[in-house]
Structure formats: C-alpha cells, structure tokens
Amino acid sequence: MNGIEYSAPRTIDEAVGALVAAKGAGRILAGGTDLLVQMRAGFVKPGSIIVDIKKIAEMTTIEDKGGGSFKFGAAVSGMQLHDHPTFKKAWPGVLEAINLIGSKQIQGRASAGGNLCNASPAADSVPALVAAGAIVTVQGPKGRREVAVEKIPAGPGRMTLEPGEIVVSFTLPARPAGSSDAYLRLIPRTEMDIAVVGCGVNLTMKGGTCTAARVSLGAVAPTVLLVEAAGKALVGSKLDAEALEAAAAACRAVCKPIDDKRGTIVYRTKIAGVLCKRATTIAAQRAGKK
Amino acid sequence: MSKMHVSTTINGEPTEFLCDPSQAVLDVLRDQLGLTGTKEGCGSGDCGACTIMLDDRMVCSCLVLAAEAEGKKIETIEGMANGDQLHALQKKFIEFAALQCGICTPGFLVASRALLERNNNPTETEVRYWLAGNLCRCTGYDKIVRAVMDVAADMRGASK
Lengths: 290, 160
What we know:
Radius of gyration of chain A: 19 Å
Strand content of chain B: 15-25%
Oligomer: heterodimer
Largest sheet of chain B: 5 strands, mixed
CATH class of the largest domain in chain B: Alpha Beta
CATH superfamily of the largest domain in chain B: Beta-grasp domain
CATH architecture of the largest domain in chain A: 2-Layer Sandwich
Largest interface: A-B, 30 and 32 residues
Strand order of the largest sheet of chain B: 2-1-5-3-4
Largest sheet of chain A: 5 strands, antiparallel
Number of strands of chain B: 5
Radius of gyration of chain B: 16 Å
Strand content of chain A: 25-35%
Shape of chain B: globular
Helix content of chain B: 25-40%
CATH architecture of the largest domain in chain B: Roll
Distance between the termini of chain A: 51 Å
Structural class of chain A: alpha+beta
Strand order of the largest sheet of chain A: 4-5-10-6-7
CATH class of the largest domain in chain A: Alpha Beta
Number of domains of chain A: 3
Order of helices and strands of chain B: EEHEEEHHHH
Number of helices of chain B: 5
C-alpha cells in the first residue's frame, strides 16, 4: 500500500480539482467500506490519490425539504439516516434498503453514494432509490448536472460518470399523502449477505386504488433495472391478485440474471416476481397506515 | 512518501501520531500506540474484532484510514474499564463465560456497550441483529447474548 496519497478537500470544487489532477488515479473515499477492503487486498495501485469527501458539509448533510422530499449527501452513513428524526417515516423503503448494507459497524460508515458508485448490480440501496425516483446531483469539471439515479450504473463496476465527476447528493421527491415504499431482498441467510434478488416498490394509494407506482429490481441484470411495465400493471388497480401477478410477470420478463451457485437463472427470475408482489403489499400497507 | 500528522482523542486523552496515508486506524492503534486490545480478525470488515467507536459511531477500525481520524474522538476497549473496576459488560461476560479464546471479545464488548447506550431494553432478536457483525467461533453466541440481556436488565433495574 505504498505510494498512496490522501487528501481531504473542504469544497466540492477542490475535490473535483484533485480528481482531475490525479488523471484517473483518483479514488473517492466516502465510508471506505469498499475502498479500504480493496486497498488492504492490494487492488489500489501505488500512485493513487485518495480523495476523502467527508470534510465537505454538503456530502454529509441530510435536509428535510418538506412534503416527503429529502436531500442527503452522498457520504451520509446508513446509521446517520437511521437516526434522522423524520427520514424513516417519509421513506421507510429507502431506509431499510440502505440499512441492509453490511453490519452495524459497516452502517456507521457505508453510504448510499458509495453503494451506487461501487456499481454492483446487487447493491441494496440502488433499487430502492430507483423506485423512489431519486435524482442524483453530480459535479464535475464542466459544472453540476442532475440525473436520474438509474442512469448512473453502466454495468458491473462501471458508471456513466465522466472523468472528474463526483456524486454529490440524492434528492427524493415530494410524495402525495397515501404514498410509501418498501425494499425486499432474498439472501440465503438472515443477515449480512449479498442480494440474490432485490426489489424496491414505491407507490401511492388513493381510496384503495393505486395511482402511481415505480418498481425496481436488483441482482437480476448487469445493472439495477427500473421496471416501468410493472409499475403500469399496478396503477389503476386495487392491487388485487390479478394486478400483482401482472406486475410480477413484468418483473420476470426483464430479468437477465447470471447463473451461479447463489442463484440459478430460473430461481432468480421466479423470485423477482415473488419479491415484487410482497414488496408491493408491504408498501401499500405502509401507505394506508400513514 | 511523507508521513501524515494526525491529532485525535483516544479514550479521552489527546493523542498525536504520524501515519502513512494508506495506513488503517487499527494498525496505528496496535503497532504504534500499543493499544493491542483492539484485535485484527479478517481485515475486511466482516468479523467485527477491530470494532471501535469513532465520534460515537461504531466502526471497523480496519476500514478507517488513520488520516481520517484527524480531529475525531476514538474509543477503544482500553477505555472501557475504569481503572481496576471492570465495566458491567466485562463482569457479566466473565460470569456467563461469554468468551473462550478472547479474540472476538473486545469487539463484542464495544459493540454491546454501543447497543445498550442506545437501547437498554433490547429484545433478544435486536441483540442478535446488532451483534451480527461480530463473529465468534467459540461460544456459539448464546452466552454472549444472555450476558448482554442480563446487563440490560440490571441497567433497567438500577434506573428505576
């Protein structure tokens, strides 16, 4: 691990400058729960510049913007979101997804920004954020831009970010009354594992009818998927068995999973439909109880 | 590669050290500061043996750069007992035989204290989930969980 440098800029401009100056050798440090593992395994090359973004206030701040809308920095830890007084009630699905990443120790450090930028197809927080309709603020050498979270992953370990660009924050939209969300994942044990399938559902209920729905799947394709057809199958229904099965079928139809010892293609595809139904039911129960 | 100078507070004591930019807090604690109570297990954030508190958050010290500790408060197992007076959790771990080889014990104690400071009335399920990031190959966990539950009950009794 020799020849690695560390910097902790105070502003995003400085962080972007450091990344650009590093000419591809820059590595962003948020919670470090992926980066430090890579460093200790010798996967971070000598000459790399570690850019710690946690001294930048915007990266570590949670802002309740009212009406259910929240903005939180890319380096906000899972435990920080968990302990926030209003976030859990507003976005229980997003919170449960972020809080599934690793142990309580990992939660003390791991962030949604890091989970997104590690670019694993099985990242737990990403399907929930996609279902939530999260907008990501990105800053780079050409300035700031806003992009839907599902546009960031490009494939396992790859992102659509330009060189020098940094994920700064996530903005969750305001939602009407009667809205809620849920995230479920399947793992072969009860805790501390990587999703075999993950599913996020975000919906709005009015008078027993679903008026808006977004469904997202993780770990069944090279990137997390927004399953628009599944959302459409739920909207206008009372979430009866027929609508749930239509949404589940839409989920199964978009699955292109890997086949490995943790889950075969057939198994992952079937489970995607099962989790879609269950997460929808949980989100609807939460929406009704608000 | 020049060393970095870091000022921090460890178990209440202002502490300064020099470190490499890529060095983890765990390595500085053990190899430079002689605080060998914090153990290295996996070195990848899976086992919890190196658990410390960093600005009141429970973290794996193998996954924190020493340079990140600048201006921060660190608490390790060495700060748990008050002189010769063991912490209630330490006493109960001994009483319940909640340890055998002892490598995981400092991590379990720091994690258990963090839980009880947040919640002195946890269910068994809550204790088990909270401690899911701490691995023990000796005890089978049951004695640890019972020790933590028992300390929690004592804490509730004392606060009545």
